[in-house]
Write the structure tokens for this entry.
Amino acid sequence: MTFARVDFAASLLTNGKILMIGGYKKSAEVYDPFTGIWASTGSMSVVRYMFASTLLDNRKVFVSGGYDSTAELYDPSTEAWTSTGNMTMARCRHTSTSLNNGKVLVTGGTVDAIRCNGNWSTSAELYDLLTGTWTSTNSTNHLRHSHIAIAFRTGQILVTGGSFPTNAELYNLLTQVWTMTGAISYQISYHVACL
């Protein structure tokens, strides 16, 4: 890469390229697996680390938090970032999940974004891509950070792990209710999952 990065995010774009974002930096770059070349692209408005990133249905990349409550969108067609509405609180080590109704669900993390350590949260909120606004939704049953969230076609979102719980829970998009589901065999965090 052009720069060393830590606590960054990577997104697979619909054109087959990979967007590498942040990591105690504002900068971003794109990797082309067909040519093996890295190229700089537009920079974010703020330095981000331990933030959340997700690819949206409109092919843009949505990032939030990692230092403050801000959020912004990357458009691969213009290579530009656009600021959008702020979350209700600063977050780090949280998740963001693109939903099938044009919204993004953000869960947990820490609200002490200066140190990204302590003050873990159960709160969750929804970002509306059409209006650029945030609304609170029901909180998770357990404090979570460094966890993962996966959206199913059924409209449910599975949240697992984090540095404390060995349990998992499901969010129902229609009712906005969290319910506990089967326990994980052991405590996990900073993990991945695939559909």
